[in-house]
Amino acid sequence: MPTVNTVRGPVDVGELGQTLMHEHVFVVATEHLDNYGKGAWWDEEFRVADAIAKLGAVAAKGVRTIVDPTVWGLGRYIPRVQRVAAGVPDLNIIVATGIYAFEELPHQYEHRGPGLFIDVPDPMIDDFVRDLTEGIADTGVKAAFLKCVVEHKGLTPGVERICRAVARAHVRTGAPITVHTNSFTQSGLLALDLFAKEGVNLEKVVIGHAGDSNDLDYLMRLADTGATLGMDRFGLDVYNPTEQRVATIAALCGRGYADRMVLSHDAACFMDYFGGAWDEARGTLAPNWRYDHIHDDVLAALLASGVTDDQIEQMLVFNPSRYFS
Ligand SMILES: [Zn+2]
Fold it and tell me: Where in this chain does the entry annotate a coiled-coil region (predicted)?
């Protein structure tokens, strides 16, 4: 049985169980937190306890694994996630490497790379591979997948370099990829085209945020490459309401695509996008944007729309386990 690295160490892929394929524990940029959060709105102990409570609640509903694509650009900080993982012993947390950037490279990679001022092989690839094979910083925690972004501006030079580095780290290690895409500009097609040219096994790619689209032609075009559709923003009705997301998944299941979809919310225990007012903002803007919306509401709606128990099991259990195998 192949294993996958989680925050607490390797787990048999057959033991992952019900898996939410795109959830953040924390989205808290460390530089912002260190300068403006501490002494103001950030309370480390409260937030760790709050995360343990929120993740414990979804584990109690049957979820066994969450997949956290928080990378550089979203505030990855593994020691805090380790504390949370220790407090939720029946939930696996899988973490990622990569870079979250809509347009530009972090300056730390701008001048180092092939043909640049410091002319060396792309250091991003080595950094990603080290996170996957040796561990992240000195935490001992290994990332198990790669993350990048192709947003509405498409393959800007910075985004293209990150995506190629992610693709090459995948080719070197076999680690799967999740790419954040913009369904309204159909940027998933750009991502898959680049990955195909880089020799990526497209069956190891999740097209993140595909579920914001109800365009079946676009979604089938993505899935027909072998990629998996991330139906992963349940509760973010501002992008696509739950009823529409459910109808789209039911239509795709009816056309034989249950083996090409995964489910999630893209939720977080805390995000710093609203300063300290995360819980209030989430409650007003998107009250269903929480880890248990799928189990509380969506699964029943899928069943009522003709999706079968087997298809739900496929999307929640088998497809995630295949992705990490
Ligand atoms: Zn996300």
Answer: none
